[in-house]
Amino acid sequence: MSSISVCEGDRAYVCNKFKAPVFDPATGLDNDTIMQNLTALVDDLKQQPHPVVKARAFEYVARHVRIDVSPHDWFVAFGCWDGKARPLNFLLSRWDEEVNTRLTTLPLIQDLNRSAVCYSNKDFYHSVPDWDAVFTLGFPGLLGRARQYRRQREASETMTPQAQAYFDGVEITYTAILEMLQRFRDHALSRAFGNERMLACAQCLDSLTQGPPANTYEVLQMVYVFFMFGEYIDLIQVRSLGNLDRTVYPYYRRDLQLGTYTEAQIREFFSYFLMQWASIDAKYGHPFYFGGTRPDGGSEINDLSYLILDEFDKLDICSPKLQIKMSPGTPTTFIDKAVDMIRRGHSSIVFLCEPSIRRAMMGYGATEQEIRLCDITGCYEFVPHARGNCTIVACLNMLKMVELVMYDGIDPHSGIDFGCRTGSIEMLQTFDDFYKAYLRQLDQIIESAMLCANEFEKYLSDVNPALVLSGTIENSLATARDAYHDGCVYNISSILTSGFASAIDALMSIKEHVFEKRILSLEQLREVLRLNWKGHEKLRLKMLNAKCKYGNGIDAVDTYAEALARYLGSKINLRPNSRGGFYIASMHTPPPYHLAHGQKTGATPDGRMAGEEVSKNISPTMGADTNGVTALIRSVTRMDSAMHPGDFPLDVMLHPATVQGDDGLFAMRTLLNTYMQRHGVAIQFNVFDARTLLDAQTHPEKYQGLQVRVCGWNVHFTDMSRKEQDMFIRRARNIRE
Amino acid sequence: MPTTATVFEIKRCAVHDGPGVRTTLFLKGCPLRCRWCHNPEGIAPGPQLAYYDHKCLACGECVSVCEANVHSIIDGRHVVNTASCTACGKCVDACLGRSLRLYGQNLTVEHARQIVLEDREFYSGGGGVTLSGGEPLLQAGFCAELLSWLKQDGIHCAVDTSGAVGWQAFQKVLPHADTFLYDVKHADDSKHQQYTGQSNSRIVDNLRRLSECDVPIEVRIPLITGFNDDGKSIDSIGALLSELRGVVAVRLLPYHHAGSKYQAIGLDALMLALEEPSSVRIEEIAAQFKSLLDCPRVKLYV
After folding, report:
1. CB–CB of A719 and B301 under 8 A?
2. How far is CA A399 from CA A72, A520, A706, B251, in A?
3. Do A661 and B96 count as a contact with CB atoms less than 8 A apart?
């Protein structure tokens, strides 16, 4: 293994590049001036269609924003790096407001969000370009292809004003990209003063203005600048960097064969490349993925996969996020390397199981090739490669429906009436009555969420025309439709959930305590919950400690979880959306909705206090899984993941002692394989660090399942005395360090 | 009458108790009284109520369900009188602070088998079941019956034993066990007696006989400060093990402090607060074993 490839002085430059950048004023205008001029420019273009207005704004930024090329970096610097200061943000906000004034469902959207019954809004954060097209064509080729499609449309006399605006937008944007690359090149040349790295950078940029990239350095520079153009100028259009080990591999092989670069140089390029995202450190994370399956059935993991993972490991960074597409053919050595990194504290690695993705995508008719190459569009979501987009339009607060039943369709927190009358609770005589009422409230909210999304999604391309993205998607060019709106073959809208496990626990608690043990009536329970358990702490603990909790492999509980999950899928999957596509159900809870939804949900029968977080993903409520990780995986995979083609992610917590040594590595791999065999989709391991153990000291109720396990004995962490816990925290630190 | 055993813990996803991912059943009762015992709740043969006082909320729920007057709240403090406890477990279910735990439930062979089979998908790659304790071979009939069923189910079977039982007990499980985990504490008999309450002669004899039985043995050595962590003790253990062809692995288990468990079952007086061996010392001992054993035929785990 070579030594760290980013030297200290360079590391400081790259870190500051996005956190506290310094730009030479002579290279362009400051961002304030750009903003002022852009406002004026946009006002002048008021009569023009949005794609054209946005493209002209893009062009203006590309021409005037400050730039830098530094001897400390292999990659160029844009003056518009900051999420807050992205120059075209104002356009998105302005057009969003304009669209909102036209929405008849706006009051309902506001009600859904305000009550936290369901998050509902337009989503622009899940674009993935067709990276294969970007690699093959390069910037000039993408522009050329767009022009070709325009000419075809003109020749067939099918050009409409909308199509015209679309092509204008794409062409202006890509022309501006080429111009800006030349600006970078000229700047590098004028400041190089013989510096070899800057001259190489100038040469690389020159090459990218001429055609597709020819070697590893050019490819990486292209991915990076494409990302900056798409994400920071054209706005949030490059979530994922794609399948880097597959796409870069041919360049890497050729460079080594021809002697263009040595392995050490390629390592260096990758470490500087990865450092860019570590420096950007976007809160929602930019991922790329490893592996996948080749057409001949072999694994896509290659020697470059190891090299990239190696460099990431050495840099000790937590962004970009790493996803590993896993199948039975994925080399064990690669999985072990990743698993070893996880237990050493890399928390940004997630595994996605290909056989389960296949089952889920077959549910909406995706082809073998679309499935094999599927893109990962966000944390874990997957869509057909280069032929699909997937927006997140809603996140259902599954726990809130319990409150809606209690108050006959009215949210007690906000007082908003959602109109579904399931009757006063005195009428609910059996648990079955309650459960049916719950499902009806859920139906109502799903329908409301779809009603809203069906309307606001008509305007996605009006709010944020996806020009950079559309230029890469062939179906978009062929149809002259925006790639993030309805220009893909699959235009998918995903409905997510929060508090799934919390809802199951709450329902089970009502079943046990109200209808089976008859400890109290529903009316009494409602009153106790209204008081946030005040004066009823014993009852709260009883309900909190109840055995019937999701995530413990308990048949009677898992049956309900399975049924509810299936019900959700049946109500959502394949319903038509307003973009010529369809809805899919997802079990994903995007942070921070487990907190935000919890904050506005009152006390609930699972023993939860008002305002506390709700469960996330398909994971159990914090502290409710006391039977260990195998029982957890059995519970979770009792549900059919294919009913949730949006996503099906599980978080697993492990103590460092459990995963220590070769045995520990083997155990983690076994858990992973079993999860895959049982059709789990995404899984993220968290090995407890000292900080989490400290939290367990303060909030033991959340960590009832945490066991410290070493050879021959084990002990519940919360059973240990303070002194013993302290000792274990020290040991956890040592294991990790 | 179905055969039953008293089990004080079921550890799922056990990763250091034999190959692969395993389910370990801890059977109650132990003939030894090791002064450093990590599982004191496994010593007594019958079910046993444990009380973790730092978790107690003094809510009194236990008082109201207990028919044997084990629990009382005096001046806001929970007093537990286990002498009259029938180990019915009602107070454990009622406890709001999760401060009560019942160590020991009676399981039939079939129930234990079902528990093991629940996780069978996790046993791929060599995993399976481990019977541990306490000393599982004190209930050798149950062990043999359970293992014979599990063998038929295709489950890999391991027995984790102190060796401090009659050879007949080994004979019962031998036809079904795929591997043994065998504790060796000391080669010196007087030291062994002093620290465990029993001579090691039967343990050593059983180990020698087992070593000729064509079944792989992993020897587990607890490293106890002041007892067996000195060079001479390691030398003598190493010399003993190096003669035994059945020993395929040696695992060193550095001592951990297990004080809270002692307090919980009212054995505070027996609790020994020793220094945990330092990581440097553990490495030195490992190096010493490496030179004494026929590595790599014998694998050494720390």
Report:
1. no
2. 52, 20, 25, 48
3. no
List B156's β-bridge partners, or say none: B128
What number is the ipTM of this complex?
0.91
Count of residues making up chain B = 302
Q: Residue A470: CB partners within 8 Å, gap ≥ 6?
A: A166, A169, A170, A476, A477, A482, A483, A484, A487
Average pLDDT value for residue range B109-125: 96
User: Which residues in chain A touch residue B118, judged by CB atoms under 8 angstroms apart?
Assistant: 553, 630-631, 634
H helices within A573-628, ranges in order? 593-599
User: What is the number of other CB atoms lying within 10 angstroms of the CB of residue A328?
Assistant: 12
For chain B, give the mean pLDDT: 92
Predicted pLDDT of residue A700: 81
Residue of A668, A712, A725 lying closest to A336 (CA atoms): A668
**DSSP per-residue codes, A67-117:** EE--TT-SS-EES---TTT-TTHHHHHHHHHHHHHH-TTHHHHHHHHHHTS
Q: If you average pLDDT over residues B281-300, what whole number do you get?
A: 88
Phi then psi for A490, rounded to 5 degrees? -115, 110
Q: In one letter, which amino acid is B83?
A: A
CB contact under 8 A, A700 and B14: no
* Window A:579-638, CB contacts with B under 8 Å: 627-631, 633-634
Whether A1 has a pLDDT exceeding 60, the answer reads: no
Q: Are A66 and A23 in contact (CB under 8 A)?
A: yes
pLDDT at A735: 47
CA gap A709, A707 in Å, rounded: 6
pLDDT of residue A2: 40
Q: Residue A171: is it exposed, middle or buried by C-beta count within 10 angstroms (0-12/13-18/19+)?
A: middle
- Whether residues A630 and B132 touch (CB distance < 8 A) is answered with no
The beta-carbon neighbor of B259 closest among A628, A663, A721 is A721
Residue of B nearest to A678 (CA): B121
* pTM of the complete model: 0.93
Burial B214-235 (b: 16+ CB within 10 A, else e): ebebbbbbbbbbebbbeeebbe
Report the residue of chain A nearest B133, measured CA to CA: A712
Neighboring chain A residues of B12 at a CB cutoff of 8 Å: 627-631
Please return the burial class of A320, using the count of CB atoms within 10 Å of its CB with bins 0-12, 13-18 and 19+.
Answer: buried
A465 has a pLDDT exceeding 50: yes
Q: Among A13-17, A177-181, A655-659, whose mean pLDDT is lowest?
A: A655-659
Burial class (CB in 10 A: 0-12, 13-18, 19+), A161: exposed
Distance CA A135, CA A148 (A): 18
CA distance A658 to chain B (A): 7
Local confidence band at A737 (pLDDT 50, 70, 90 cut-offs): very low
| Distance (Å) from the alpha carbon of A346 to chain B's nearest alpha carbon | 21
From CA B238, how far away is CA B215, in angstroms rounded? 20
Averaged pLDDT, B251-257: 85
Q: For residue A322, give the H/E element and its range.
A: strand A321-326
Amino acid (1-letter code) at residue B238: G
> What percent of chain A clears pLDDT 90, i.e. is strictly above it?
82
Q: How far is CA B219 from CA A87, B157, B240, in A?
A: 68, 16, 11
Record the tokens describing residue B79, joined without a space. Answer: 């007093």
Residue written as token pair 């519940």: A716
Report d(CA A669, CA A665) in Å as an integer: 6
A24-69 residue pLDDT tens = 999 999 989 999 999 999 999 999 999 999 999 999 999 999 999 9
Contacts of A603 (CB under 8 A, 6+ apart): A528, A529, A530, A531, A532, A533, A540, A609, A610
pLDDT at residue number A266: 97
Arithmetic mean of pLDDT, A444-454: 98
B82 vs B94: CA distance, rounded Å = 17
